[in-house]
Amino acid sequence: MGIFFAKKKQSSRITDQDKAILQLKQTRDKLKQYQKRIEQSIEKDKEIAKKLLKNNQKDRALLLLRKKKFQEQVLIKADGQLENVERMVHDIEFAQVEVKVIDGLKFGNDALKKLHAILSIDEIEKIMDETKEGIEKQQEINIILTGALSDEDEENIEAELDDLMTKDTKEVAPESDDEILLPDVPTDKNSNKEVSSNKLQEPVALES
Question: What distances in angstroms separate CA 142 from CA 88, 101, 146, 153, 154, one per listed residue?
Answer without folding.
Answer: 73, 53, 6, 16, 17
